[in-house]
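Researcher: Structure for this, please.
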Amino acid sequence: MTSQWKRRVRLRLRSTAAASTLLLLAVSLTGCATEEERCGPVPSTRYDAADLYGEWSSSRGASLDLKNLGGRLGRTFLTHDWPKNTSIEQATAEPPSSGIIGDGNWAVSPDRTTLTLAFDRIDADLERSTVRSLRIGEEKGHPVLYQRLGGAPDACHVLKLKRRGD
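Model: Predicted structure, token format:
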């Protein structure tokens, strides 16, 4: 009777191990949400300034034109309908609210993870509240610029810009 009992225990252990393995595989494939879940595109460090020149736009109408004029002017940008602030109301307004038309200079961080915008000639309050840095990410083999916007920690609201033609 003890050998039959041992056989049952071994069979149950194997069944439990198989079920546990399947559960772990299912969780890893479905990407179960955690507190550290990524919000936005996959971060990237493979793009530098030369990879980012061009016209970028969001699905909500914001646009960003990145240029390199060289000389004293260096890398310049121009925005149209740029978000006035980083609130959820700004991100989800229907129709999208009109935004900033602005210009200035831009730079990529040494670690190639962030693009920073330094606006010229906008008031200090507006400059403090608007999106002035964008994370550099990647989708489908192309660079993407994005910034997570305010709101509930369990919601993912992102300003995402794709280069025209990508």
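Researcher: Any notable elements?
Model: The CA atoms of residues 27 and 33 lie 10 Å apart. The longest helix spans residues 2-30.
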